[in-house]
Specification:
- Helices cover 11% and strands 48% of the residues.
- By secondary structure, the chain is mainly β.
- It folds into three domains: 158 residues, Cathepsin D, subunit A, domain 1 (Beta Barrel); 115 residues, Acid Proteases (Cathepsin D, subunit A, domain 1), CATH 2.40.70; 89 residues, Pdz3 Domain (Roll), CATH 2.30.42.10.
- The strands form five sheets. The chain has a 17-stranded mixed sheet that branches. Strands 2, 3, 5, 6, 7, 8, 9, 10 and 11 form a nine-stranded mixed sheet that branches.
- It is globular.
């Protein structure tokens, strides 16, 4: 079952001037020979690590789909001056002009990173990101200074200067990638039928597969699908506009040399075209920017996917659950639930006044989890309405 909320933290940079290229290409690791292990937390479906700057520890998201980012508070605390401004847009298509700075030094484990270019973004301005309590992002431009292994099973990163320092499993499959622009985000070939497009390899996304439907439209006929309206996705600058989304069960498709069978990617016209941690966590992954190769060793066998839910998805706005997605032909749609309905009670339990902690918990842990049926009371135009919903398999 897919999670009811997808955090897509992808930060794509629109480069219009050479200073940005210089900033993001800058920097180095002081140590020349190293193999460093860095534990990460995975409580929110993304890897978050400890970073030390000027003797103080901060939480940073480890995000291949982004450039390195620091908060405005850190910029002020470190007394950093803006080198240049340029446009940045997130995974939901929102765009803003941001400051770019140079971070003189930071430590990840015992590794000293020097003169790292970063974007200044208020990562706590959006509710879901505030819940995750991180202060910045370690992005692909910085990761490219080393070779990285991501061990989801043991929640451990390993950074090294040489691939020979890592044990590559005999069952590991090799995928070629292209580093995208100055940000160096890996993009990999995904083939469905006879169509191939390049997709972001994004450790900052909680989803599995989120593809642009226009890249594959001719190959998606005669497959099982279910459609939704609305959007529970969130980027650095907030949620996207409501849009039609198709969940389509694909009998077989390829990610580089990896063949996946009977999985259910999400397709939208505005998709940022990415794959994320819900898929990655089944593998031990090595990313080598020296050779532009990704090694993926399967640790959990993928089973045939199915989509089972109540036909609705929520976002939490002002600590209140709001209907943000509705599955067509579901119990929720047939009963008359609408986008933007505020859920004020579930099975008689008040949901209208959550604390920050409660709202954060349910933003990442489906409030309907474990239920086979539920009585949903909503507030619409100052009227209370109650619906009886059942969990159903909407796509198998």
């Amino acid at each position: 079952m897919k999670k009811h909320i997808h955090l897509l933290t992808l930060v794509l940079l629109l480069f219009s001037c050479s200073p940005v290229h210089k900033i993001l290409s800058s920097g180095q690791i002081k140590e020349t020979s190293f193999t460093e292990q860095i534990p990460f937390s995975f409580d929110y479906g993304v890897p978050i690590i400890k970073v030390n700057i000027n003797g103080k520890n901060y939480n940073f998201l480890f995000d291949t789909g982004a450039a390195t980012v620091i908060s405005p508070e850190l910029k002020t605390l470190l007394n950093l001056e803006s080198v240049v401004k340029d446009k940045v847009h997130d995974s939901q298509g929102n765009t803003k002009e941001q400051d770019f700075v140079m971070i003189p030094s930071m430590k990840i484990g015992s590794l000293n990173f020097e003169n790292i270019g970063a974007v200044v973004i208020d990562v706590r301005n959006i509710f879901e990101f505030k819940c995750m309590n991180y202060d910045g992002i370690i992005g692909a431009n910085q990761m490219a200074k080393a070779i990285w292994q991501i061990d989801y099973k043991n929640k451990m990163l390993t950074a090294t200067n040489s691939l020979s320092n890592l044990n590559i499993s005999n069952n590991a499959q090799t995928i070629d990638f292209k580093p995208k622009g100055n940000q160096k985000t890996p993009i990999v070939a995904v083939k469905i039928g006879n169509k191939t497009s390049y997709v972001t390899f994004d450790t900052g996304a909680t989803t599995d597969f989120n593809f642009a439907i226009n890249n594959y439209k001719t190959e998606l006929t005669n497959f099982k699908e279910v459609q939704t309206i609305g959007n529970t996705g969130t980027g650095i600058y907030g949620g996207s506009k409501n849009t039609a989304t198709s969940y389509i069960k694909i009998p077989s498709f390829n990610i580089g040399n990896i063949v996946l069978k009977n999985q259910i990617p999400t397709f939208t016209e505005s998709a940022s075209n990415l794959m994320g941690n819900t898929f990655f966590k089944n593998y031990k992954i090595i990313i080598d920017w020296n050779t532009n190769k990704i090694y993926m060793a399967n640790e959990v066998e993928l089973t045939d996917a199915k989509l089972e839910n109540f036909g609705i998805g929520f976002r939490y706005i002002n600590n209140k659950p709001i209907v943000a997605k509705i599955y067509k032909n579901s119990d929720a749609e047939k009963n008359g639930l609408l986008l933007n309905d505020q859920v004020i009670a579930i099975d008689g339990k008040d949901t209208s006044n959550f604390t920050d902690e409660q709202a954060c918990y349910y933003a990442f842990n489906n409030i309907l989890k474990g239920k086979e049926s539920a009585s949903i009371t909503i507030l619409r135009n100052d009227k209370k309405l109650t619906y009886q919903l059942k969990r159903n398999v909407v796509l198998d």
